[in-house]
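Team,

Forwarding the record for the chain on the shared tracking sheet. I've put the sequence and predicted structure together so nobody has to dig through attachments.
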Amino acid sequence: MTTWEIDGATALRTHAPDAASAYDAAVEVRPLRVHDEVLLDPAVRAFSEQLRADAAGVGDDLRVGLARATGDHLGAVTQMVWIGDLGSRVRAALDALFTPSQWESPRRFPVADLNVVITALRRAVPKLGVADDVAGTRAALVDAVMRTPADVPADVVEAVRRDLHPAQAVAAVLGAALEAADSITVALGAEHPEVTSGVWAATTEADRVG
């Protein structure tokens, strides 16, 4: 068995154990006192889907719908959108590069501060380092994770398996997923400045190097 023949979830745990632990913690939480009818509201889902497709395409109608659906919970819900976006990209891309996984769907438990798990994940990913961009392969993989994580082109998968070590591929996927999820700041625009106390507080220089 070659190292590419393990499943995506195993690849994450094998080649990025700290990031895998941080990922597990992030997908196991939900905001305190925010009920499913808010998290699953059609306006929240519409915002999330457009964010995943193209953050720049999120217009005022989606932002207003998100604000109305979430009310005082806007910051916490956008943090959940961030977690969901990153997680879906990681799962899809790793399963495409390696083999399909049975990703666990843990029961989420409520926490008062989602920043704890988000910051831990943001800090774990940069520590993996950056692979050399052999023949533009890493750039092509990053682009696929940013644009079409659920449909990574076959030629990109072939190039990644040829030019990168599995650990480098996992690191590239995590880095690209993190960058893509951070585009939520673009999607929110300037309409909701109060959200700067949420996910976006984790982007300070101290957190980047911590």
